[in-house]
């Protein structure tokens, strides 16, 4: 399940923030913020995406780097939330 | 008038062990900051930087940025602060336009200069922060560039710092206008020192203040926050990024910050957070707002969130070093929606097309005079002549003064929507929509329309957990606005697109609109 979420998140990020350019420059564990892939507006778009794609509602206090820093952390967050609501 | 390096030295002499900058628990004291700046001054001289040269600075958000800024000033050179989120095109444009002699930047950003040596004949010294192997890998085609590690720059003996002349160029700040290439705003030591002193005076800053910094350092607003607090010996706390607002609130509470400067989107985000009242913000003595106009609805929400804090609504321009006007906090309710009065040392007027001052409540262009007004645009006499005229700086902003001399800003001249015979300011419509329950923020722009020339588009972002109901929104608009000011189109988005400075990216709003009208809108649900 984890791999599925990671793949979907990656393809969403690539499509919406890198405009389709996936040159392996962004690794699963890379900081999307430090790499300049996502800014504060972008994070809110990701929040909307997690809701639409995975039915995961992000609470404001969950909007922290521990959950949103990288593709890997996003996938882990989605899986934790889905497991908790299952 | 003491110039910025002089003020910093004085602060360091008074309290050498006081924290000047705190980032993730790493403290830089005033003594350390001053010493680092003096070493950088000496290091730059070794690399051939002379009085009158320009040095680019791309180390935003760090202690190194501040040390390097003052180090460059100490060398008698002008600082050119640039975003560290950069690309070849914009970086080479700025470096070439200002003929930079040296640049301080992160090792990974050297990649954007690879092979660019022919475009940058004046640029020799590149001082990088980070690992040598990253620098080597990033800058593959070196040309005449000479690489120096930031640490080696600090390794020598500190320079004996010479005083700066107030008329000397201190900084060139690039601003992107609504059209055309970025312009280089030339600020002298006198400009920056005067504006710093005025701001310190009206904010009543002291050495016991601790300011929570979320703004980029390299824009006029962030730049003025740095200099004002350093000049009084206060502490600057890097409070994190507004990408993670809860973290910012936690940092403010943990560091017991007394001050918090933000742009309207900063406060829109915070006031719309679920559970924001759980955070202890009682430490805040003052909150400042600038960068764009804040709606009365948001001002009231902010006041409700931090009732004990003095809220300073402010107005300014890069061309004025930073600040032109502020609304005294005790007038916030009485003059809600006003940008206030001129700051100490500044004169503001509202003038008509003929340049003559207009009577109260008549809308015209805001013109400013004062020791903080720029010398001009770097190597652009034509644009300089357009804005620096005999009666002062023509801001390009439209506004009016009330009977008591309080300024109300209507909008940027270029942002006015021309629909039919009407000239419509987006502000009034934005105010109405932002006051609707469930709306977090709104931006209004004109979109091309066959009949009217332009039609009104409202781009609206809901508060968390809400949806934009078009019918309800339009009903409210109809209650509050004449029919010709009703939005023709409403587009719901998760958040407004913004420039790195936090301003609404109006050109991007048009792009969002085009995409949505052709059926490819990203996340345009709800409307």
Please summarize what this structure is.
The complex is a heterodimer of chains A (86) and B (527). Chain A contains 4 helices and no strands.
Topology:
The complex is a heterodimer of chains A (86) and B (527).
Chain A: H1 2-17, H2 40-54, H3 65-68, H4 71-85
Helix pairs in contact in A: 1-4
Chain B: H1 4-14, E1 19-23, E2 26-29, H2 30-46, E3 54-58, H3 63-74, E4 78-81, H4 88-97, E5 102-106, E6 125-129, H5 132-138, E7 146-149, H6 150-153, E8 169-175, E9 183-188, H7 189-203, E10 210-213, H8 220-231, E11 235-238, H9 245-254, E12 259-262, H10 264-271, E13 286-289, H11 296-305, E14 310-316, E15 323-327, E16 341-342, E17 346-351, E18 364-370, E19 376-377, H12 381-387, E20 388-389, E21 392-401, E22 407-412, E23 417-419, E24 422-424, H13 426-434, E25 439-449, E26 453-462, H14 470-480, E27 489-492, H15 506-517
Parallel strand pairs in B: 1-11, 3-4, 3-5, 5-6, 6-7, 10-11, 12-13, 13-14, 26-27
Antiparallel strand pairs in B: 1-2, 8-9, 9-19, 14-15, 15-16, 17-18, 18-21, 20-21, 21-22, 23-24, 25-26
């Amino acid at each position: 399940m984890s791999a599925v979420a990671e793949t979907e998140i990656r393809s969403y990020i690539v499509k919406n923030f890198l405009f389709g350019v996936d040159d392996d420059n962004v690794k699963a564990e890379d900081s999307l913020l430090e790499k300049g892939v996502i800014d504060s507006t972008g994070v809110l778009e990701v929040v909307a995406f997690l809701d639409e794609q995975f039915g995961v509602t992000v609470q404001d206090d969950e909007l922290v780097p521990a959950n949103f820093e990288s593709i890997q952390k996003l996938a882990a967050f989605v899986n934790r939330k889905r497991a908790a609501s299952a | 008038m003491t110039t910025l390096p002089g003020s910093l030295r004085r602060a360091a002499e008074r309290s050498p062990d006081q924290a000047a900058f705190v980032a993730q628990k790493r403290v830089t004291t005033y003594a350390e900051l001053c010493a680092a700046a003096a070493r950088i001054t000496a290091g730059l001289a070794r690399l051939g930087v002379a009085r009158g040269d320009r040095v680019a600075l791309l180390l935003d958000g760090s202690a190194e940025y501040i040390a390097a800024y003052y180090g460059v000033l100490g060398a008698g050179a002008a600082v050119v602060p640039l975003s560290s989120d950069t690309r070849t095109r914009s970086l080479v444009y700025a470096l070439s336009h200002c003929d930079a002699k040296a640049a301080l930047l992160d090792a990974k950003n050297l990649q954007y200069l690879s092979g660019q040596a022919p475009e940058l004949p004046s640029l020799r010294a590149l001082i990088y922060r980070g690992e040598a192997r990253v620098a080597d890998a990033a800058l593959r085609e070196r040309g005449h560039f000479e690489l120096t590690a930031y640490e080696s720059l600090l390794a020598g003996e500190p320079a004996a710092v010479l005083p700066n002349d107030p008329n000397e160029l201190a900084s060139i700040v690039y601003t992107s206008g609504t059209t055309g290439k970025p312009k280089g705003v030339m600020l002298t030591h006198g400009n920056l020192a005067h504006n710093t002193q005025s701001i310190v005076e009206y904010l009543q800053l002291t050495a016991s203040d601790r300011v929570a910094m979320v703004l980029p350092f390299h824009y006029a607003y962030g730049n003025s926050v740095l200099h004002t607090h350093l000049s009084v010996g206060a502490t600057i706390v890097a409070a994190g990024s507004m990408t993670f607002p809860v973290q910012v609130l936690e940092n403010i509470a943990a560091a017991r910050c007394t001050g918090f400067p933000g742009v309207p989107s900063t406060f829109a985000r915070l006031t719309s957070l679920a559970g924001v009242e759980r955070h202890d913000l009682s430490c805040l003595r003052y909150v400042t707002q600038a960068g764009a106009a804040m709606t009365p609805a948001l001002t009231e929400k902010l006041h409700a969130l931090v009732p004990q804090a003095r809220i300073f609504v402010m107005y300014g321009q890069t061309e004025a070093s930073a600040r032109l006007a502020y609304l005294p906090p005790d007038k916030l309710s009485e003059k809600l929606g006003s940008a206030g009065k001129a700051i100490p040392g500044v004169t503001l007027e509202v003038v008509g097309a003929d340049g003559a001052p207009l009577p109260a409540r008549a809308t015209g262009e805001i013109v400013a005079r004062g020791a903080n007004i720029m010398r001009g645009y770097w190597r652009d006499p034509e644009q300089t002549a357009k804005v620096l005229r005999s009666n002062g700086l023509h801001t390009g902003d439209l506004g009016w003064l009330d009977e008591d001399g309080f300024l109300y800003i209507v909008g940027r001249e270029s942002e006015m929507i021309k629909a039919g015979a009407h000239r419509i300011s987006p502000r009034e419509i934005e105010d109405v929509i932002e006051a609707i329950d469930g709306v977090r923020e709104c931006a209004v722009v004109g979109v091309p329309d066959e009949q009217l020339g332009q039609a009104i588009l409202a781009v609206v972002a809901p508060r968390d957990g809400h949806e934009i109901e078009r019918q309800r929104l339009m009903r409210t608009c109809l209650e509050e606005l004449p029919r010709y000011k009703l939005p023709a189109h409403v587009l719901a988005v998760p958040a407004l697109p913004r420039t790195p400075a936090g301003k609404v990216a109006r050109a991007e709003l048009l792009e969002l609109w085009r995409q949505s009208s052709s059926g490819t809108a990203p996340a345009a649900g709800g409307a």
